Amino acid sequence: MNDQLRDHHGARPSTGPAHRRRWRPGRAFWVGVIGLCLTIAGTAALIAQDAQHRAEIFREHAEQTLDTFSHSIERHLERAHNLGALIEAGAEIDPERYQDTRRPTTDNGLKFLAWMEPESDSDELRIIPLIASSGGGVVAHRVLRAEPADDLSHLRTLETAIERGAMTGTQGVVLFHANGEPVPGFIAFNPVRRDGEQAGVVALAIRLDRAAGNARRDYPVALHVFQRAEDGSALLLHGPGGNDGVAEHTRPEQLEDGRHERRNLDVAGRQWTVYATPVDATAGGWIPAHALMLLIAGIGLSGLAARLVSRENHLRQLVSGQLQGSEQRSSSLRQELTVARNTLSREAATLQETEHYKRFMAARASELFARLAPDGTILELSASWETLLGQAPDTMIGRPLGQFVNEDQHQELNRAIDAPRLNGDPVTATYPLRDAGGALHWMEASHLRLPPARQDTAGNLLLAARPSGKAPPAPSPQPGHWLPYETIFQKAAVGMAVFDHRTGDCLYVNQALCDLVGYAQNELLEMGYRDLTHPADQHATREQLDQIGAASQDTFQVEKRYLHKTGRVIWVLVTGSLIRDDQGQITCVASQIRDISEQKAVEHALEQINRRHDLILNAAAEAIFGLDTNGRVVFANSAACLLLSRESATIEGQVLFDLLDAGLYDDTEVWPIHACMEERQVRQDDSALFRRGDGSVFVADYTAAPIVDNDRVTGAVVVMTDASERQEGEARFRSAFDDVAVGMALIRTDGRFLRANDALCQLTGYEQDALLAMPSAELLHPDDREANYRANKRILEGQRPSAPLEQRLCHRDGGIAWALTSTSVVRDPDGQPRYLLKQAQDITPRKVAEAALRASERRFRGVFDEAAVAMALLSGPQARVQRTNEALRALLGCSVDALDDQPVLELIHPDDRAELECRLAGASATDGSACSVRLKGCTGNPVPVHVQVSMIGQDNGGHATDPLQLVQILRHDNRHEASRPLGGD
């Protein structure tokens, strides 16, 4: 036997024509191919999952980057707005004050924040950098002064901002210079007005590359900042290329084609579009490591399986060689069994056809199916045909299918019947079927050839049909008859669909659903409910189906989001019904889809309103209680809990009278809060006594207002404030008002006195009753009344308070009393002016002294300028020249400008300076100090003179706040003139 096997399998196969065989793929080949296909599919799935994961990570990083960038820009703009508001409110910008704030800052992207105000003696703007990054102060002066003047776009923007009176940003990119390299930037100007006039401009500069870098942090995200111009084009402000703003993408269209996240910003009147794109789209490798390992392992296992199958085939061939002899010996037995085998084959084919037919019917129980003879004669029908066509299956069996199809569609029907019968390939065709009433129903039918029962006969055809998206015009309903259910389904105003419960595919849809989601019927029939459902709600319908199937229920209802064809999100209410067959098995799901987007928007808006109301009530400084008709608390804000020293849980549900009872009211029925609900009127009470949760008693002011709904009182709202501090403040105010030594008065807005203290009565000489009976304007000198009226009007209108005024008051005896007055406004809780508070300080002695001093100064100036003796006034430790007369200027041959503010020692010969310096140090108000020196003068020739120094402005104690020295200079031949006193006869 071994020799026979060796001769049969070990010999080289013959290469003759009789032994040449065409190669055909065997089991090993197909096993390897299938294993390789599965490996490739698994690898592709892992790659897709990895790509989706990286896309989600990028989206999260991009959103965080865009949020950080937009918040940084908004914070800088808000800083410029706040600075402008402070300056408009009266804040002054002192350059010395901001010496410490101009140090380098690490603020995100801020280059500098500067204040620009007009120079008093120049047309230029003085630039004060307030906050600046490294080198930002220099950049502010250079850029805002247009040095170099090669780009004046920001100066044009400055003019535009001043004309508009609103913050305006530059059009396009502004290049700064950092370390000699250009960097992209953006400048915005915020004009500031004060008292109706232009006060200056706040300049804000943002370095875009640093702002984008800080926003990116360590995320692999690139930022492109575009600005939309007035003509609709897009200007690139910053990109991930170089510092000069040149990037690999210079147009938004290039970014729209790739993966990106976008954010629109309104920056100082300019529209920005910021794109966040991945730094490296291929980051992570073309194929992840775990997918690569799966691919390698799959290829190896596929090869191993193919090798094992090949080995099995080799062993089978060895065994088949051994069996060839046995087959030759059993050939006679085969002939005897041929008849029996043919019989069994026919029975097996018939059984196979029946089983295939049953499986097909079970899989498509919700569709129409039929078994046709090769010539198209109907052999068997499902019960659903009677539902659709209105004819019993018994009346249709044995008739050609073409009798139920229009003649113009016979060619399509014959193609669908002949093709599978001839070549065995299944065919799908669309043609209409006519029902008992003559109406047409367009069907999408699949024709499949069944295995033949005998080898000498052709196989039957299996027909499976379902309604297609194409629908014929609906027939007009006859009076007294119901419309066909297809017409009701198609004409329904609510979206309706039938889904396969296993795959989720759409089986039937109506036009209302197509209008709702924006797809055509043929497009929806190729989709499923998962394709329509928002990714975040994919689980909703599936979970409902699982729960209903487990509980044997037939209906469900779920709210979820659909995606419109345009990408718009639609909220829908899906009401589903499970359709079961006679055995209770689920065949499909019929759903009604109703658009509830508007309802969801209203619910969201209502939720936001309620939340905003809660935030507003809890943010209120006053205690607010909501009461029902029995006086029970149904709402208490945070201020109410703090006022009563109680938790919210211990307040709500309690009667407010019991919580606050301090023994003031014996009967709750006479409590003003109950009276307000009974009388439907607002009740107020000042200085009421109540009790806190800790037992302490406090004074409160409260207002109770009824809540009326449909002419029915449903409760009340109580607003309560602690009046303890107010009463203490009023007591302190009365004490300060009456006892202060400065004259004070409260004046109503109509100009009448409301109250005056004793100091004001003593200053004006009027009794308090007489003063309160007269208008406040009559107390002022007629020449000061107009200025007082304008100042009061400006304060009452809420403008900046005026500076203290020096005004003349008319004394009762007819004289004048000078007073330094200041005015402030007292407002009520609603912010409306209630009355004016005037303070008047007596400055009459100072005014008398100033008048006498001015007269004395005029006399001294006349004597000083007209004196024949050369004289000069010196001040300060260096004895600088403050004033000279004509005689001194003639003696020195100098002009006023040459002598003004010069140290007097510079006019003396160097050899004589020590002598004069000693005399200057020893001069006093009583005894003059004299010496002989040489004057250089402006001519350069020394002139010998006699100098006498006297101190002016010292008191008797020898001290003076700012003493002056008087120097008299005489030539040697006129020394006797020095003994004459200044101004003497």
From TrEMBL:
PROSITE patterns: PAC (PS50113), PAS (PS50112). One of its GO terms (biological process) is regulation of DNA-templated transcription. CDD domains: PAS. Residues 1-10 have a biased composition (Basic and acidic residues). SUPFAM superfamilies: PYP-like sensor domain (PAS domain). Residues 353-418, 485-552, 609-660, 729-799, 856-927 form the PAS domain. Residues 1-21 are annotated as: Disordered. Keywords: Membrane, Transmembrane, Transmembrane helix. The chain crosses the membrane at residues 28-48. InterPro entries: Biofilm_reg_signaling, PAC, PAS, PAS-assoc_C, PAS-like_dom_sf, PAS_4, PAS_fold, PAS_fold_3. Residues 556-608, 683-735, 803-855 form the PAC domain. This is PAS domain S-box-containing protein. It comes from Aquisalimonas asiatica.
